[in-house]
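User: Please predict the structure of the protein below. I'd like the answer in C-alpha cell form so I can feed it into my own downstream comparison script.

Assistant: Understood. Taking the following sequence of 252 residues as input:
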Amino acid sequence: MDTLLKGKVALVTGAGQGVGQGIALALATVGARVAVSGRTREKLDATVELIQQRGGEAIAVVCDVKSPESLGHSVDAVIDAFGGLNILVNNAQEVPLGKLLDLTDEAVTAGWESGPMATLRLMKLCYPHLKGDGVIINLGSSAAKRWDMAGYGAYAASKEAIRSLTRAAACEWGPDNIRANAILPHALSPGMAWWVDNNPAEAEEFFSQIPQRRVGDCEQDIGRFVALLCSEGAGYVNGQSIALDGGQAFLG
C-alpha cells in the first residue's frame, strides 16, 4: 500500500456504494484508516471487506445522517475505534429530483436534512477532533450550472448550500488548521447508472457536453483525487469548489 495518508483517520459517509465507496477505497489504499458510514450494514461490510483485502484497516459505522443523535454516535464510534479523526468526507445525501410543481415537501425536506443540514451538523461534531490537522471534503454538484435546470432545482439548491457552508468552514476554521473544500463530481455510481437507464435521450445530450465524453470512475477518477486533496501536497488548497467532471462545468 501507498503511504500518502499513513497515520490519518477518515470518516466517509455514504460509503456503502458509489462515490463514497470509491473515496473510501482510495483513502485506504494510500494508508488512511477509514470509518465507512451509511444506513445499510451489508453494504458497509462489503466496503470494509474490500479495504481489508487490500491490506487496509476499516470499520463499518451504521448511521442515518438525517438524525443528529445518529451522527453523534457515529463520530464517537470513530474516536473510540481509532483514537482520533483527520479527514471528514460528507458524501451521503438523498436526491430530491422533480419539477417544482411536482416536488413534495417531504422530498425537499429529506434532501435538505440529509444534505446541507447533515453536512453542517457533522462538520460541527468533528471540529474538535479536526483542529490542528484536519481536512473536510464536501460533495457538491454542478447541477446548478446545467444548461437546463428543469427538474433539478431542489437538488441544485441543496448542493449550492453545501458549497456555501464549505466556504464558511474554510474561512472560519482556517486559523485552526482545518481545510475545507467541495468537489463536484460526475461518476458512474449506481444513482448515475439508474439516471442514464431511465433518461436515455437526456443522458446522450449530457455525455455530449462533457469534453472527455465520459463520466468518472468512482475510485480512480474521484477517490484518488480526494486522496491527493487530503494530502500535504494540497496543504494550501482551501475554500475551493472543484469540478471533477471531465471539463463540463464552468464555475467562474
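That's the full C-alpha cell string. Helices lie at 18-29, 41-53, 68-82, 105-130, 153-173, 190-198, 200-208, 218-229.
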